[in-house]
Design a protein that fits this description.
mainly alpha; hpI Integrase, Chain A; 2 domains; two-stranded parallel sheet
């Protein structure tokens, strides 16, 4: 069978499984043999033969991924790109990743831009299934996937493989990860050069943007409608106080949704709020890249915190030092930290949908924009609103941005404002 018709099988599982596998293989006297068994197991039902150099490639890739075990999000992104590279190298290029030159990497990028249809999935699925007590590759998994927008999904539009497209931001991330991988191989003396760095004309793949990317955020009208609806519902049903507090955290402290839930490296609690000697309140979180940061708590956020604790949790207005009460607990048990972002997405989405219906008659365009909004837009909205009147360095540090250049994207230079100011330009008097 031509490899063109080969359907890929996953070889790397979750971050915990990869950590366990790394430790297990390195404790073995003959790790390559164990890796070979694992790869043969992964491809048992495939009509392809695992090449002899795959074991060494896999071990090197495993070592590389293991070094990113400190951050779940980073690990997932790196695993995706490295797995694609291995699959393509073994069964399309039929060559070890250690042998790749500049032209090989260029061919790989071109393949990622237009992969075989059989490499494209229409939904996100688990990589492995537990069958008879053993992890087995999920036959529905694919290295690439097509997703539809929230609006299209609500309209019943199904994803189509013909609509697959690799975005410019994704391409940039791909080049960065591949370059990091080959720099790692250089340091480990497994490669003589970084073929990614040798690609001088990345512009044929990546288009230069003329301006900063558009920041997706809610308008003042949209945000006020969303939060007002949540507060009105909380007056009728105390359980909705939890939703109000979640919205307040996302907007008022620019938290990412992942910073609200428990993970291996960090579990957010009420004890992460603290007061300094000047009476100022701060919130500590661990976010993207496993980086800790302190967020200045506004008076409005502090008021929301006190109300949530008294009304919903029946606790004292202010958190106690080292208090272990979860920041966001489950609806049925507030003493257990929520560990999945899915319930939070559903709550926020429900508020968006209700708000969109409320403003449909008054402003159909605002309603339509709200229907495609995501939870992350609330972080963008909070930053965008604050950078108008707070020093950008303060917003930068609270948001956890690595540089002021990122924060500058949130400065109010929206297209409609730019267009409005342009109308006043004079050519001749």
């Amino acid at each position: 069978m031509s490899n063109k018709y080969y359907i890929p099988k996953p070889v790397f599982d979750t971050i915990d499984e990869v950590i366990d596998q790394y430790k297990s293989f390195h404790a073995d006297d003959n790790p390559r043999q164990q890796i070979r068994k694992w790869l043969n197991h992964c491809f048992t039902d495939s009509d392809v033969t695992v090449p002899p150099y795959a074991s060494r490639d896999y071990q090197i890739a495993l070592n590389f991924l293991y070094s990113y075990r400190g951050s779940q999000d980073t690990f997932v992104g790196y695993r995706r790109e490295i797995e694609r590279l291995l699959q393509w190298s073994w069964f399309i290029r039929e060559q070890s990743v250690l042998k790749h030159k500049r032209e090989d990497i260029e061919a790989f990028v071109e393949f990622c831009i237009k992969p075989y249809k059989r490499w494209i999935g229409l939904k996100n699925v688990a990589r492995f299934k537990l069958i008879d007590g053993k992890k087995t590759p999920n036959p529905e998994w694919r290295p690439f996937s097509v997703n539809v927008s929230k609006k299209d999904r609500q309209m019943g539009i199904e994803p189509n493989k013909n609509d697959y497209q690799l975005s410019q931001p994704t391409l940039k991330v791909m080049f960065g990860i591949l370059s990091s991988f080959y720099n790692f191989l250089l340091q480990e003396e497994e490669a003589l050069a970084n073929p990614v760095a040798l690609i001088r004309q990345k512009s044929k793949f990546i288009c230069k943007e003329s301006s900063s990317p558009v920041i997706r955020r809610l308008s003042e009208h949209q945000w006020q409608t969303v939060i007002n609806i949540a507060q009105e519902q909380a007056e009728q049903d105390i359980a909705q106080e939890r939703t109000v507090f979640i919205l307040s955290c996302l907007y008022g402290m620019y938290l990412r949704i992942s910073e609200l839930v428990a993970k291996d490296s960090w579990t957010p609690t009420m004890g992460d709020f603290s007061k300094d000697n000047d009476g100022n309140w701060w919130f500590k979180t661990v976010g993207k890249g496993n980086k800790a940061r302190l967020i200045a708590v506004s008076d409005a956020m502090l008021k929301a915190l006190k109300h949530y604790r008294k009304t919903y949790l029946n606790l004292s207005p202010f958190p106690l030092p080292d208090e272990r009460t979860p920041l966001i607990g489950y609806a049925k048990n507030s003493n257990i930290s929520i560990a999945s972002t899915r319930p939070i997405r559903r709550l926020v989405q429900r508020c968006f949908d209700i708000a969109a219906e409320e403003i449909t008659l008054a402003d159909p365009n605002e309603a339509e924009a709200l229907r495609v909004a995501t939870v992350h837009w609330l972080r963008h909205t909070g930053i965008s609103d604050d950078v108008k009147h707070r020093p950008r360095e303060h917003v930068r540090d609270d948001a956890g941005h690595s540089s002021s250049a990122i924060t500058d994207r949130y400065i109010d230079v929206e297209l409609r404002e730019r267009a409005k100011s342009a109308k006043k330009k004079i050519i001749a008097s």
